[in-house]
Structure formats: C-alpha cells, structure tokens
Predict the structure.
Amino acid sequence: MNINNIISDLSLVNGETRRMTCPSCNTKNTFTVTNNMGTIVWNCYKASCSVSGGTRTTLTADDIRRSLGHVAEETHVSTFVRPDSFVRDYNKITGFCEQWELDAQQLGLMYDVKEHRVVFPVVHGGVTVDATGRSLGNRIPKWKRYGKSVLPYCSGRGKTAVVVEDCISAAVVGDGGVYVGVAVLGTSLSNGHKEYLSQFSTAIIALDPDALPKTLQFAKELRGYVDTVKVLRLTDDIKYKQPTDMANLSALGD
C-alpha cells in the first residue's frame, strides 16, 4: 500500500475533501483526504486504525484566486500539546469518579491542577488530538475544550454508536463493550462528527429529554452518513442510568 500514490491519483483541488474506503483497514467511508491551501492531509476515522499523515503539493493559479477572501474549511487535523498543568493525580478526581462510577485509569483521565478540572483526553487512532475538562468547582465554563480538533470525545469499543452531549454520558454508555459513546460537546454536529460516525452501521441519538428539536435535527443530518439512525426518548440524562432509559437503550441496540 502506497498512500502517497493513492493521494496523488485523487488530484484534489484546493478546498476539496474526498471520503473513501480506507486503504489500510478497508473500512468503508472512514478515510478522508483534504487539500487545504496546498497541504494534503489524510486520516482514517476508525478508532482502531492509526493511518494519518500530510504532504505538500503545488497550488495552481486558479487555486490561489479561489482562496482569496475564502476561509478554508475546518478539518479534523490538529496538533495538540498537552498542557503542563495536566497530571495523573487520581486522588484529586476520586470523588468525581465515584459519583459517576467511572474508572479513571481505564479512561485515561487526568487532573488539571491550574483550573481544578477533571480532564477527558480525546483519543483517535491511538493519538491524543484534544482534551475536554469538566470543572470540579464553580469555574466557568463548566466544560472546556482545550484544543481545536473537531473530532468527538468517544468511549467504548462496541459496534453501535450512541450520540450524547457530554463526556460523562459517553463514558457511562461506553462502559460494557456494547456501545461507543460519542460526545458532541456542543450544540451541533460538525463534519468531523459525521465523518467519524460514518464508520458505524447504526447510531442512536440519546440527548437530554429537553433537547428534542436538536435530537431530531441530529437524526436528520446523520441519515446521509449512517445506514440506520435511531432516536432514544429519555426520561432523564442518560448518565444517571435510569432503569427505564437503559432498558430502552438496550432494546434499540438489539
């Protein structure tokens, strides 16, 4: 497999993105290639595949003219440098983890000594591309995204994706090996979210009970990327693991 030959054969113009079967893991629609002002970047969104990279190409005169006054589309590729304030001090986050029944070591959680936050690393392809911190006190905002990656926080190794709003919910859903909890960490689905979710044949939208309009919008948007999209009507936030909600989730996942 020669990635560079494959990329060259695509002949992407500036601003163009192509999604295709990954040449490494052979998973359908998980491999993307983008030409961003002459920088060609590629990545596989499948969690177990680590294929990614970048190279330079020559911009044509037309490319340059089209780029004037144009803001390049945001891609999933980002460089994340872990802040020095991140430490593995499990004693500082014990109470938080016990409250939500989270395994700090298994999830790779850290503690931000500067901002008093529990830190959820955003890992894709074995690489930490970002991190999200949850305040353990009254610091605003309650949730903070440290980097600029558009990829979601995900937890678990199941075959069905469950789309939730925050990292705690994703970790709760992902515990057990049946589902992958995917936290959007915002009010909308980015292209990065959709492309990541396209590797799954089934996605279940499980947002808070008061977010029905957003739930229906997410389902509509994902139907162009995922074969089967289902909506879970919750009685409470899924991280509280209400028996009725968990039973309904199990029924949808069958």
